[in-house]
Amino acid sequence: MSKRHEWSSTLTYLLTTAGATIGFGATWRFPYLVGENGGGAYVLIFILAMLLIGIPMILVENVIGRRAHKNSLDAFSPHYQKKSFSKAWKIVGIMGLIGCFGIIAYYMVLGGWVLTYISSIIQGVLPLNHTLSAQETRDFYMQNIEYNPLMVSIYTLVFVLLNYIVLRKGVSDGIEKAMKFLMPLLILCLIAIVIRNLTLPGAKEGVLFYLTPNFSKINSKLFIDVLGQVFFALSLGFGVMITLSSYLSKSENLIKTAVGTGILNTIIALLAGFMIFPSLFSFGLEPDSGPKLIFEVLPIVFSSMKFGSILAVSFFTLLIIAAFTTSITLYEVLISVLSEKLRLKREWAVFWVLTFTFIAGNIPSILAYGPWREVLIFGKNIFDAFDIISGNIFFVLTALGASIFVGWILDKDAKEELLNGTQSKLLVEIWFYYVKYIIPIIVAIVFINGFKSSFLD
């Protein structure tokens, strides 16, 4: 077996995993869920869930990926894990691939939406030289997103082609180099916008809403939203962490990298909140606008600011950079499987993955708000169905399968894998029994409640 590529440094790996986990999960999904769930209570439970579930689950996928040193499908193969068990465990890898396709199907379209906004602001189609009304931003969204599938298709294709340029160069020359440039740029832009928004009049009210827990808001829905966000935000359950860790050196300290990934993701998510809520409260806007928060509400904020057009372009550019750092790692999951299973040259594997996902996933998601709006799956349009089915079924089932696989199939071999590069034997023992007995119960509860709320209620 030929030697698998390894990351050039721990920092490069951390930047890449941070890029994989930041994306729209931190900059789009986290803020609107905070707003819907009453602010500080959600933030508090999110931080606790990241520590108690997120980081242990990162280690689960890291162990599987690095031990096999193969793609996220073969990582569940007895041959590459060098252990005797049923080949049926590959079903876990297959579910992860399906979930990965599901998120790519609509994720790239969100990238197309953001590029549409950037272009429209620059061209003056979305004028921010006067204070916009809620109706004006709603009309723009309807006319340029929901009722203009051709424009969204073009910008989505542009976003896909940007991914192609990086991915065809491979892990070292493509993904590593992109992350070394994009992640510091993303963090600097984020900090700059946060500082600007914290200086707005009335920003204090937004900060208090964001950080002050209202314990009356804590309910079963909040827990489901938090745990779902942890999986989404950390790219758990769809093969990303397994794939990225398959390029890790055996001497790497997995505990340190997992903790670093979890902490960095939490910091970025918290910064995203500071970027949004002070400005909303400063201009008297409601924080509970849901998924369309950044597309229909924030343009009103920017139109009320001095140099609003520049700030808006900066904000949406930050979003597209965050989305890009995630999308290239999502694609890498499918590319690594295709190239290794079919022994395709990387250039062709990249071409076929991006082409197939664009035709079979992105186009239907775009049409879901246009000509195909009447096509419903479980009562949801195609775009929302990709999100709910992948997030509430395949991500969680894959994570559940992975935790059982590590705790009950790899067993002592999982502990040995984690001990490579670390001397924290007691910590490894605690993690192992926690993953073996506690995590599967928590994940199963999340799955049952998420399934009920999405498909039965």
UniProtKB/TrEMBL annotation:
Keywords: Membrane, Symport, Transmembrane, Transmembrane helix, Transport. It comes from the Bacteria. CDD domains: SLC6sbd_Tyt1-Like. Its main location: membrane. It is a multi-pass membrane protein. It is found in: Membrane. GO terms for molecular function: symporter activity. Pfam families: SNF. The chain crosses the membrane at residues 12-34, 40-60, 88-109, 147-167, 179-198, 218-242, 263-285, 305-338, 350-369, 389-410, 431-451. One of its GO terms (cellular component) is membrane. InterPro entries: Na/ntran_symport (IPR000175), SNS_sf (IPR037272), YocR/YhdH-like (IPR047218). PROSITE patterns: NA_NEUROTRAN_SYMP_1, NA_NEUROTRAN_SYMP_3. NCBIfam families: Na_transp. Belongs to the sodium:neurotransmitter symporter (SNF) (TC 2.A.22) family. PANTHER family: TRANSPORTER. This is Transporter. The lineage of its organism: Bacteria, Pseudomonadati, Campylobacterota, Epsilonproteobacteria, Campylobacterales.
